[in-house]
Amino acid sequence: MRDEVNEPLGIIPARPSPWAKIGPALSRGGIGIGAVALCMGAYALWHRAQTNDGEPFAVARIEPAPAPPLSPPQPPPSAPSPPRPPPAVASPAATQVSAVASVSSGAQLEASSGVKVIRGGGGSATNALIIEVPQAHGVRQTSAPDKRLVERSNFGLLPRVGADGARPADVYARPVVERAELKGAPRVAVMVGGLGIDEAGTIAAIDKLPPAVSLAFAPYGARLDRDPARAREAGHEILLQAPMEPFGSAAAGPGPHTLTTAASEAENLESLHWLMSRFTGYIGITNYLGGKLSADAHAFSPVLAEMAARGLDYLDDGSSPRSLAREIAAKLSLPAAAADVVVDAAPTAEAIEGALARLEAQARRQGSAVGVATALPITVEHIARWAATLESRGISLVPISAAIARAPPPSARGNP
After folding, report:
1. Which helix (H) or strand (E) covers residue 272, if one does?
2. Residue 239 pairs with which residues in a beta bridge?
3. Is 130 left (phi over 0), alpha (psi -120 to 50) or beta?
4. Distance spanning both ends of the chain, measured CA to CA
5. Which residues lie below 8 Å from residue 18, measured CB to CB, with a gap of 6+?
6. How would you classify residue 394: left for phi > 0, otherwise alpha for psi between -120 and 50, otherwise beta?
7. Cβ 149 vs Cβ 281: under 8 Å
8. 3-class DSSP state of 243
9. How far is 306 from 355, CA to CA, in rounded Å?
10. Quick one: angle between helices 265-276 and 297-309, nearest 10?
């Protein structure tokens, strides 16, 4: 019976649910049922993995695509012909091609266009050619040292001709870059020497002078492990300036390992090897002083023969009228040239401007001319300004290697 007197007002107690006693029993049994269901699900997954290796798969039909037509459809007669694709651009460093023409055609190519052709192994006829093509915007030179072109010595790395006949003078040379309208125009080459001694002057010459101006480094600089490489990175080709015995001097020469007339052949070659080992990447050697040595055929011939054997060029700076360099070099098949004008023989603004004018006149008269100078601040400034307007006067500025390659024999040169 309900006790309505003692029940809270308005609250009727809930009647006991018939599931009240059954629920706990089901809860206890549900654990077992759930475990059974879990085991069945795991078995189903395991069985599926065994049949498909755990990976979904599908079957697709693969059919070969129809072959393209043998030739593209031709445009209608009224339509204009499609434009031809532009020619391929050659590699900036070098492009190797097969020689399909005679040797004379390669020589004509070199003479008429200024493109340097290197024949594999120094061969002729139809051997492979390497034709160096400059970049449209700047020139990238071969990095130095080229492993083919060096040999180790007690002093360091020495230049040599590669097993394939490659010469350092050819591989390290800066390619000629000329505007189309200047093909066949007179050429001027300028070498500025004395670099490597004064750091500020060296950096100024590298940065201010046009890349076509060649730079010669003295062998006594403190930064020869960096400055020549920096010059080549800026686009300049470089030379080694070798000290040689001058006239009228009681001393043996301008510095250690100077090449002299009193030294034996072996002693001079040992000194030359020391000089050659100071840095790498140069196309050849030029003299520093040397009037007495270059006038002595007996003492000078072995020195030039060693340069020829190592694949180098030689530039006589023109300071001594008694030099036999060109005559000896011709007998040794050593590519060589002599300077026509010493630009700063008198290091004044007026004298330098006059010398540059004579250099231009010499180029117009004989087709090419070579000038040499020293890296004095006044010289660098005047050469930089002069070179900036040279092309507008119809003259090409080329590296020394190009002037050496085209240099006429001694008897064919006019007086400066």
Report:
1. helix 265-276
2. 216
3. beta
4. 146
5. none
6. left
7. no
8. strand
9. 33
10. 40
CB-based contact 220:255 (threshold 8 Å): yes
Reading the block at residue 26, the tokens are: 């089901």
Residue that is written with structure tokens 């059919």 in the block: 63
pTM as predicted: 0.68
Whole-angstrom CA distances from 303 to 201, 235, 255 are 30, 29, 18
Cα angle 308-92-190, degrees, rounded to a multiple of 5: 50
Looking at residue 140, the DSSP 8-state letter turns out to be: -
Question: How many residues appear in the chain?
Answer: 416
Query: Is 340:359 a contact under the CB 8 Å cutoff?
Result: yes
Q: Is 68 exposed, middle or buried (0-12, 13-18, 19+ CB in 10 A)?
A: exposed
C-alpha 7 chain-centroid distance: 108
Write the pLDDT tens digit of every residue in 44-59: 554 554 544 444 545 5
* Pairing verdict, β 150-152 and 129-131: unpaired
Classify the C-alpha dihedral 403-334-277-194 as positive or negative. negative
Least confident interval from 259-263, 323-327, 344-348, 406-410 = 406-410
Distance (Å, rounded) from C-alpha 151 to C-alpha 367? 38
The first and second tokens of residue 123, run together, are 């061969």
**In angstroms, rounded to a whole number, what is the distance separating the alpha carbons of residues 33 and 74?**
78
Peptide bond into 145 cis (omega under 30): yes
Whole-angstrom distance, CA of residue 196 vs CA of residue 137: 28
In the block, which residue shows the tokens 């036999």? 324
pLDDT in tens, 233-280: 999 999 999 999 999 865 557 889 999 999 999 999 999 999 999 999
The dihedral sign for the CA sequence 168, 380, 383, 347: negative
- 229 and 410 Cβ atoms separated by less than 8 Å: no
d(CA 256, CA 276): 13
C-alpha distances out from residue 242 to 27, 254, 276, Å: 106, 10, 9
Q: How far apart are CA 310 and CA 158, in angstroms?
A: 9
State both tokens at 301. 């011939």
CA distance 360 to 350: 16
- Please answer whether residues 409 and 330 qualify as being in contact, where contact means their C-beta atoms are separated by less than 8 angstroms: yes
d(CA 270, CA 120): 31
Element (H, E) at 150: strand 150-152
